[in-house]
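Look at one record.

>
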Amino acid sequence: MIEIWLNPACSKCRTAQAELDAAGVEYAVRRYLDEPPTVAELEDVLARLGLEPWDIARTADAAELGVALPTTDETGRRAWLELMVDEPRLIQRPILTATDGTTVVGRDPESLARVISAG
């Protein structure tokens, strides 16, 4: 089983969902704009990815949202997490997590293939 965090308006998300369908794997959709992740869920995903919050941020969207971005260091880390919960549009998409813990930002075929094979 795979969980996919997606925005249906996003072409990369639609591509990822089509790849999951084509592979015939079972998956659950989370529309993360409607149901934002908690700080704990973001922490878990980031630990699985081996990344920091600013590494999965859509920083270009910050200007549109009128938000200032925190510093990209340990002192700003908690502020990033809270900002992403409050403004989930800032989270890169799609994020896919397989039952075995394999987690990817599925914006390229290689990442999608990796999570599909784990699913």
Observations:
- Residues 11-23 form the longest helix (13 residues).
- The beta strands are 2-6, 27-31, 95-98, 103-105.
- Residues 1-32+94-119 form a domain with the Glutaredoxin fold (CATH 3.40.30.10).
- The CA atoms of residues 39 and 81 lie 6 Å apart.
